[in-house]
Predict the structure.
Amino acid sequence: MTGYTRPDGASSHAGDGSPEGELGTFKTLEQFIIERQDSFPHSTGAFSRLLRDISLAAKIVNRDMRRAGLIDVYGSTGETNVQGEVQQKMDALAHREFVQALRRGGECCLIGSEEHAEAIPLSSVSQEGDGQYIVLLDPLDGSSNIDVNVSVGTIFSIYRLPDGYDEEKPDPKAALQSGTEQVAAGYIVYGSSTMLVYTTGNGVNGFTLDPSIGEFLLSHPDLQTPDRGRIFSINSGYYHSFEGGLREYLDWLQQQDPETNRPAKTRYIGSFVSDFHRNLLKGGIYMYPATEGSPEGKLRLMYEANPMGFIAEEAGGAASDGHTRILEKSPEKLHQRTPLFIGSKEMVRRAEAFLQGEPERAMPA
Ligand code: AHG
Ligand code: MN
Ligand code: MN
């Protein structure tokens, strides 16, 4: 992994004597996508345009987020979303921007969003594009953190419309595909810088937004996550309502054992995207398990667990509900929840072993 270091070679000269400039060093997201697309025979460019639409919406959300406190985006809309959660103004704004960008772009025929009860067909409007993709979205993840200037994100998951479905009038059921069918997945983290990270099943690449030119630039090529890390991220306020195996795993993580690098460190932002991103880079595990009050956990399979599971696996990590690989779960509904254990492979395997009552299976550390 290379970090985003601003090139100081702006004044250096390329071989032909012309000034090299900053873009001589960094590839834009668009250039990167087009290069990749060229390696697929029969590619029509539709997927490239779809990603362009997503990155455009991300830039608009980013712009508004950066002015939060100056424009009216703090606080709630006064509405609750389909899962009964309070909808923040930024949730609603992000939902609108992504839907609009995808509608205009014409490559997407069906959108499933956390902020809308049913999947939204788009085919009756536009169409310049082929309308062959389905996009599932968490438009704004971690929205309770917006008002206090803490990193939040957007998560997206992309599928192809399966054969036999009408592009003009896609049945919302077409969105209910298992995670293994994803053609791409990604997230945007609006943090100390804004980054877009995505995979098409051919590695994971990260792009940092350079706000001065409004472009995402390839800053983190071919991201790989460590097999094990020192960080665990969980809301341990619910400790007493976790199942026994998980409590044992958390106790194990906190035991003193310098040889196995324990105790581990707790880091929990409360924005899944931000917690995931940090753990991806540094090594660690993020957990949102079942609790007594939420036996299926809190996070949503289709637009939180599946896309991040795809990215985790592509970076060499793992994603599980404690028993089953996330990507192999069969979805029954758009807003289905799932327990989630995601991140460094060895840590996820160990969490599974504890949850299944066989901690020795994962030993030694
Ligand atoms: P969202 O803002 O999209 O509803 O997601 C919030 C999620 C996730 O981002 C975060 O990790 C988790 O909720 C935090 O939940 P707790 O406050 O229960 O820990
Ligand atoms: Mn979320
Ligand atoms: Mn959300």
Q: What stands out?
A: The chain is about 25% helix and 20% strand. Residues 231-362 form a domain with the D-Maltodextrin-Binding Protein; domain 2 fold (CATH 3.40.190.80).
